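Minutes, project check-in

Agenda point 3 was the complex the collaborators sent over. CS summarized: three entities, 918 residues total, and the question is how they sit relative to each other. Sequences were read into the notes so everyone works from the same version.
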Amino acid sequence: MSGKTLNALLTAGAVVLAGMLLAWANAGLDNYSIRILNLIAINAILAVSLNLIYGFGGMFSLGHAGFMAIGAYTSALLVLGPEQKEMMWMLEDIVWPLSVIQIPFWASLLAGGLAAALFSLVIALPVLRLGGDYLGIATLGFAEIIRVLITNSASVTNGSLGIKGIPPHATLYVNYACLGLALYCVVRLLSSNFGNVIKAVRDDEVAARAMGIDTFRYRVLAFCLGAFFAGIGGALQGNLITTIDPKMFNFLLTFNILMIVVAGGLGSITGSVIGSVIITFMLEWLRFADSPFEALGVTIPGVPGMRMVVFALALLALILYRREGIMGMHEFRWEWLFSRRRKKP
Amino acid sequence: MTAPILQITDLTRNFGGVVAVNGFNMTVEHGMIAGLIGPNGAGKTTVFNTVSGFYRPNAGRIVFEGRDITGSPAHRICRYGIARTFQNIRLFGNATAVENVMVGGHVRRKKQWWMPLVFWPGVMEEERSIRSRAEELIRRVDLERYRNEKAGALPYGAQRRLEIARALATEPTFLLLDEPAAGMNPQETEELMQFIKRLRDEFGLTILLIEHDMKVVMGVCERIWVLDYGRLIAEGDAERIQRDQRVIEAYLGDSIDAAADGGGERAGAGPESGTEGESC
Amino acid sequence: MFLQQFFNALTLGSLYGLIAIGYTMVYGILRLINFAHGDMLMLGAYFVFFGSAIFRLPWGAAVAAAIVAVSFLGVLVDRVAYRPLRAAPRISALISAIAVSFFIESLAVVLFTGLPRPVYQPDWLITPFEVGSSRLIPLTLAVPAVSLALVLALLWVVYRTKPGLAMRGISRDIETTRLLGVRVDRIIAMTFGIGTALAAASGIMWALRYPQIQPYMGVFPGMKAFIAAVFGGIGSIPGAMLGGLCLGFIEIMVIAFFPLLSGYRDAFAFILLVAVLLVRPAGLFGQVQEDKI
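CS then shared the predicted structure for the full assembly.
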């Protein structure tokens, strides 16, 4: 049996195993644990999408919360029924055609992703033309502006009241299926020659241009793909929590995902997945830092907001002392697990 | 006689107030190995950067295979069939040797980026053929033992050859080599000369090279252009250039200046000053 | 009425300009967007608040102490978070910058609480006087005047002193400047110190003008000031000031003429950024940077 077939079989086996684990978790775990599992899947999608922009595209974007907001709102607006929307919009009447549209959940997910990608294109076209030095500030501003826009367009978004009662479509299966699809797409793209090209653009733009690569186009592409998956992640989050409002999509959200990507390793998909497991747990655990706790027999009073201080320091320490994160730029490989040498003709 | 492959007319390029290239003319015939020489800062690399689309010329015209390519962006010029290497090697250091060459092969692909996702007919074949062509080129430049090594970790001479292999992967008809012999010992230089001739013959290329090593220039170039202070001062075959009074003066003058600069205090005040933007 | 708006815009614009200078100097030298710069403005305002409220310093002394302290923090941030990453890929330094910014903001929430606090305004700065039909307060004249004085002083340092020459050298070519015997890290530290001092000064004036302080008050002014720096031509000090003034006038005047748009006020700057990048990427005073090949 050739190495490739074996790897494909192993991967298929792993997917089946993961499915069985999910079925077990769904049946046997309490709600809180399931919620954490859900968050891990969504964070992993978001981290992979941000890693596409950062680690592979070499671009510094701070707009993930904005793309998530667009995805979440698009999905919620399309998946809710006309009557529900009419009841909920109290500040202003909801505009046509949103007032009559209702589409299936999976279509609304896709729409959420596409809407985010479209907005990202509007940012990318002017900003990336110049190599993208200002992308950080432009996306940070964009993410803030999006919240202002959502708050101010009550006839579309219900303004600061937010949207409640979104049907909880994002079940454990749905989230992990989406994660699987996202991983499939990203891994497959990156392992095609597209992956070599996008890394080449990141590593040496001049040389890439000399090789006939339209570096601007590939940057835009990587950025919009990242935004697309961020939109889907946002849509899933909305459908998981069932309530969204503009305040939810603040910078902290972007920061958490940034943390996952850096911890996992810029330029490693495996790292992003591992990172999202670790960081999601850590975020939950750090909630205790906000409330009083005992250490070494001394009661330390909880300080609200301490969690974010710790988190910021952790990111700073990571980038200063272990820039490569957990995985560096390496990826998981079956060969690596079984220490089997791949022989190629 | 067929039309020339590359024709440069009255090319001028300034950097701020400094004129790096001034009214430069050049006509390169098909299948030729041409040389562009001159003292440091004479404007050679600027000519390269303008031809390969990295700089827009301030004046003049560049015609390649009958097509006006003046001011076209670099990636398009590569697609037209001009490939280049860099004076200070620019490989994708994190990628392996084969991956570097595969990036070069990308420009000739016909399938779209998303097609691998849905197993579009023919897309896997294309992926495979880009890889196998890359492996083939690696073999041709004798780098087989390094093919899965990181490009940044290769020995210097191997990096130079890898850069050429990567350029060849774009399937050029015209190859620009910027100081291919820099940093090589006499034996490597000898091999390089054979290698360049072999490239021309096996790939049916036209080659234009910048070189400081006169042995290489005189040994392989069939026609030589000499630049000094951005101006063309001589043109002809090796024998004629070696006898040309202005060329001798330009080079001698350079070495006298260089000797005067020896104190180090006047670093950057020689004829090179003001043209830092040109090289590196 | 018009006069009043004019001075409002002038005040806001010169504050943007002062903040923008810090961005433009650091970016010009390190090509780094110092995301923590906006937070320095917030710290400046808080330090004055605590200086007078807790340490009972006279107002003027509190201002001076705050500027010195924030300036020191700016140098510290460079030393701790940016200097170790000089040789690293640029994205690392950017991540470090955003981490520092988030750290300062979060710590401010913990230490100062997230509640907005009112700010003491000296009476002589806010006693209104009338010019024709307009009522003005001395503050709206003082802020532009102080800003102008600070910029002139800075220009003198940059163009007439030896460290200034070194600064300009570093922004041209850091390695060559190092070879010429300049202690590059020291000059960079100085740049951070000066830039943050200006940010602190503008933060203090900001708090006087809009007398409420809270931990996130630096975020939007910071982002907008960076855009002003891009608009003026990144790397150029007069450009940053002029960019700031333009942005100030755009914001005030658009709202004055189209009050309906006031909800979208914070978006103007970003529309401006996109427009600048499309039309004149080098900004008003910038030079197009050629790729070095």
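Noted in discussion: The two ends of chain C are 55 Å apart (CA to CA).
Follow-up: revisit at the next meeting once the mutant set is ready.
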